[in-house]
Amino acid sequence: MRPVSDDIEFLQNPRAIARQARERLSSHSHRTVPRKEIQSYEDQGWAVESFGQRTARMRLLKDDDVAFRDRVWATFARLQFDVMNSGDGFEIGISSGERARFSVLAADNETALAIQCVSFPDVRSSQLKAEIQALRDVRIETIRALRRIFPDRKTKVILATKNIAVMPNAQELLSSADITHLDEESVSYFLLLADHLGKAARFQLLGNLFAGQRIQGLDSEVNALRGKMGGQTYYSFAIEPDRLLKIAYVLHRNRANSDLMPTYQRLIRRSRLQEVSRFVESGGFFPNSIILNLDTGRSPRFDAVSKSVDGPVMGVLHLPQTYRSAYIIDGQHRLYGYANSERAASELIPVVAFVNLPQSEQIRLFMQINENQQAVPKNLRNTLNADLLWESDDLRERSRALKLRIAQHLGESKVSPIHGRVILGENTRTALRCLTIEAISNGLTRGNLVGTFNKASVKEVGTFYAGTNDATFAILVPFLESCLRHIRDELSAQWLLGSAEGGFVFINSGVESLLRITSDIVDHLKLQGVADPRVTPTEEVYSQSLVYLDAVIEYLQSLGIEQAAEYRRMYGSGGTTRYWRRLQLAIREKLPDFDPPGLSEFLEDEAKTFNTESFKMIREIETFLNEDVERRLKEKYGEKNWFALGVPRKVRESSMTLAAQKNVDLPPDKQVGYWDCLHMIDYHAIVTNSQEIWSELFAKRYTLPDSGNPRASWRSRSSWMTELNRIRNENVHTYTVKPNEYEFLVKVAGWLLAEEE
Questions:
Q1: pLDDT surpassing 60 at residue 6
Q2: Which of 3, 109, 183, 467 is most buried, judged by most C-beta within 10 A?
Q3: Is residue 41 assigned to a domain?
Q4: By its UniProt entry, which Pfam families does this protein fall under (predicted)?
Q5: What are the DSSP E strand ranges found in 405-449?
Q6: Is the whole model's pTM more than 0.85, yes or no?
Q7: How far is residue 487 from each of residues 80, 432, 547, 556, 714, measured CA to CA in Å?
């Protein structure tokens, strides 16, 4: 038999690999052909992209399976594996002349990987029995063959899938066979990470593939101090980034790390990393420590060389010598900033390492650190709290975690009808990915599907509440998926729009209202004795709900362009309430026995709601300004000096006087601060304190869109705050808000509060 290595055509030229990666990431195959052959190619589906003097560049849309295979190939190429297969796959000789075929080969001086790609054109659930069995049959021989071709490398067989919701049994089979599974979201994660980190992203991949496996030749010893902090043992030491990078792992909030839940880190920002890298290359250094958790399963070896009863002890710490054994809690940009620097092997960076912290404790520490540095974005806080509060002793927190987990699942699960539509972690907002976890959680909170809770007892049992989070999740999620899937399928035009112009259903206010109306329907079914979700099969509850859901769908389908635009402007709690109530009315007009509590009273009072809703919007805007302006001032002037340096003297004096007047009759624990005594107009004075302050801190966020002349003076661009203050003052004094003023408030609230989400 010929040597196995002769069976594979390798690409080893970095330029050739980079060029191939660019081509493979394209949605089309490309080929340059003589002009006389154009017609022949066009007959096969190719199209002319451009003409040369004697040739034409042709392109052909790739089939889904080819496009996915090429994307996987390009991902490993971008991770800077320096040996890749050429062509559309490779065959490897295994035994007795037999050959195994794989989609992608990727190797470097440490690893050799054989990757099999499987994809479907649309999402489906699968046990992948045939695919897994085929890999199990050849895995051991493939590993042996890879080791013959690439001696002294770590090897792995990988199954990469697209549009496949891999069932739990399949996951267990893959794990037992030591086959790594990467779905399309994991592939996208590593591709994005490669774009941000370059070759350094391989450390994250190696931690994923070879967690717990020994790293050959790694020097594990560091001089360290051992001490106690907050009841936890910690070690303080300095280490070369090159060594730490090999064992480090970042728990990015991404589906690629779903098997390591709960995860908590924000994805590395490329711009921030580049800044750090330039700083390092220019001779800069960071005196503050990287915070990490050593995950060893036991106390690490520490050879003490000093003794102390209460204080720290000096000694030699033996770090773990395995992949993915040091989880970075804080400092990922500082560490990875060294990744492509020659100084990584000689520079020393300070580290504070805790040992075997549960991930819930890591999350708490991460959030505490970031509360005093860069604020954790609201959407990321929500995803973290879904894990952090799941088993809380406080039933209110546990209930909140359930709602957040449901929202997260609806966005992440491939079989969910709103998969990919929910902004998770730090994913960016798009026209389609426009739903927040907060909006879905609000819909569940304001309905009766889960119920309400005191700290230690159930206050009101929700229609689907089954006693525990896990049991409730198991019956509620399939019901919500069925309802949302039906609405999505019947309102396909709206589904395709999302939050783009004309879209008003699959946006935050729309989905929140749909969840609330679904809760009303279940309440009605239970009241009528038709179905009780805790005893009636979920499929039957859904079936009985359809006639009511269809009434909602028919109503939404009937709305014209102007009405749709009105629904898009229904922001804030008042606007969402009106949206929801109109869905209730739509059902009652079709099915008169549907009469949810409060609907009749709402209709009677709707004529008077301008004032009430206006006041609510004003209060929400005031709350936003209070929090946002304070945050921006603190970021510029610091925690100690922000009020003195950022607030005009006249405003400070008036707020101090008002605080003193209020505090005269208040007990010490009820005293108000100066910042709590600002008037609406005071925020305008602060943001326009000077042109420099306006331009640096407020101009981008506080210029009302479509507010007139773009060349207007910087002061006039904040004039909406003056008008807001006028309406606010008159609203307080029983003034009747005019329609045009109400529309102004809707515009301002919609702009500020929608952006704030």
A1: no
A2: 183
A3: no
A4: DndB
A5: 422-423, 435-436
A6: no
A7: 45, 16, 12, 10, 46
